[in-house]
Amino acid sequence: MKPRFARRPSLLVSPTAEAAMRSSMKHWKQLVLLGMLAWAFFFLALFAYFLDSHGMAAVFHMEPRRLGPQQGRSRAIMGSRPLSEPGPGEAKSPEVTDGGAYPELQTRESLLAINDYSEDFGAQDQSQEEEENPRRDIQQNSRNFKRWRPERHLEDYYFSKSRTVLQGLWKGSISARMLSPRLQSAMREYVLANKHHVAYRGRQHAELRGNELLCELKKRVQVRALDGSEKPFSQLGWDKLVPLRPLEQMFGSKFRTCAVVTSAGAILNSALGEEIDSHDAVLRFNAAPTDGYEDDVGNKTSIRIINSQILATPKHQFDTSALYKDVALVAWDPAPYAVDLLKWYRNPDYNLFRPYMERRKEKPEQPFYILHPKFIWQMWDLIQANMQESIQPNPPSSGFIGIFLMMALCEKVHVYEYIPSMRQTDLCHYYEQYYDSACTLGAYHPLLYEKVLVARLNVGSVLDLQRKGRITLAGFSTVTCDP
After folding, report:
1. Residue 37 domain-assigned?
2. 115 in a domain, yes or no?
3. Is pLDDT larger for residue 274 or for residue 42?
4. Cα within 13 Å of Cα(283), Cβ side
5. How far apart are CA 334 and CA 43, in angstroms?
6. For the residues of 286-342, what is the DSSP string, one character each?
7. C-alpha to C-alpha distances, 342 to 83, 311, 339, 371, 394, nearest whole angstrom
8. Is the distance from CB of 223 to CB of 303 less than 8 angstroms?
């Protein structure tokens, strides 16, 4: 009898063939997954490149106002007016700050606005305890900053912390090519804008160091303030308004030791206050306070360098604040490179002339000077002459101005955290919740190049610089130069 159903050939695959097939499928899946990951990394890298190079951060909430007009409490660093002038009835661009930083870059093509750190995290009411202890508030926000990274460009964080950059600053040998793409782009924008119409025709590419560089500074740059002898000030009676004693003889005889205390965030937790106060004279910048920070910055203040925003902006309460009383004041405002005093008087960056005249009439016994623009641009010329690269055609920072002034007034000068120590941080000022690597490395001011020049003048140890952020400079009176 035949079977009901005819037997068909078996469709089963041999165990050996089945294992080979499974291995092949697994290998293929791995290749597909690796390929997908490779493409994902490629697109992320490409997106990150365009994000930094073309300012596409506004697409996300990473830096919401970097490419737009400033609003609320966002700030510009170091106080120059934006390149685009305000129209009739419009307010001048924001505000202040302090020696060693950079104002916003505002051109028709680009606007690099640096936002107020506290706004980016959302405005929150501070408790009474936080207001009474501002340093702890800064330290707490520093911890928050480290935890929350999307607000910052990661490459900014890398370059600002780079040991290579720090070592280059310590040695007085560094190039702008080592900076982040954002800072390089900002520098290029300022060079192209040339707001102050700089036309430098002097030498370049010198790399003097030590005593040779010190003599070059002493010969080529003369500390000078307005003395009322030039128009239009001579016609306004300034010869009777300004202090009788010239700026370079402000206190009569030379100080033996002086301290220049920058406002850098790196000075927090330094415990340098007692050392700073041991100097014969101490110079500070703009609105930098000492109350609440005495352990780190000391409490003695002999001279305060202030930019024109301090005098002209109501926020800083120049007329009433104790910061600007019982100390010698030295104010400055960026004038055109050609040093046309009449043009400058009619259109200063921020009108410092009226507040100056009022203070001189009210308190004629207080030493109070306005730096002559020629002195400021002589310093710029000397920086450019000693650099291989073209520097930003903008005035030096308040920090560099203060250092040079104290070298003229003192036999020995210690400068704290102008060139950062191992405590280096993106916290711009020790008394503000405000972060940006430009505060250390420069954008508007030729800060990077200033620091290179100061490092070449350092006669202190590298260990002092690394641990304390302390540069030691010889005063001009102690050096003998060939005629």
Report:
1. no
2. no
3. 274
4. 31
5. 44
6. TT---TT-HHHH-S--SEEEEEHHHHH-GGG-TTT-GGGSSSEEEEE-PPPTT--HH
7. 21, 20, 9, 15, 20
8. no
pLDDT in tens, 419-444: 999 898 889 999 998 888 888 888 89
Residue 268 confidence (pLDDT) above 60: yes
pLDDT of residue 425: 87
**For residue range 167-185, what is the model confidence (pLDDT) as tens digits?**
778 877 777 878 888 888 9
Q: Is 21 exposed, middle or buried (0-12, 13-18, 19+ CB in 10 A)?
A: exposed
Q: What is the pLDDT of residue 207?
A: 78
Is 449 part of any domain? yes
Cis upstream peptide for 94 (omega within 30°): no
- Host domain of residue 336: 176-478
397 CB contacts (<8 Å, ≥6 apart)?
78, 99, 100, 101, 445, 447, 450
DSSP code at position 173: -
Domain membership flag for residue 407: yes
| Burial readout 203-231 (b: 16 or more C-beta within 10 A, e: otherwise) | eeeeebeeeebbbbbbeebebbbbbeebe
Locus of tokens 């490092």: 455
Please state, in angstroms and as integers, the Cα–Cα distance from residue 369 to each residue in 65, 321, 354, following that order: 37, 18, 13
pTM over 0.85: no
**Percentage of the chain lying above the pLDDT 90 cut:** 52
Q: Which amino acid type is present at position 368?
A: F
Only one residue has tokens 């009569």, namely 252
- Secondary structure element (H or E) that encloses residue 61, with its range: none
**105/347 Cα distance (integer angstroms):** 20
At 274, the amino acid letter reads E
Size of the chain in residues = 483
Q: What is the pLDDT of residues 455-471, one digit of tens each?
A: 999 999 999 999 999 99
CB of 362 within 8 A of CB of 415? no
What's the number of domains the chain is made of?
1
CA angle 368, 373, 376 (to 5 degrees): 95
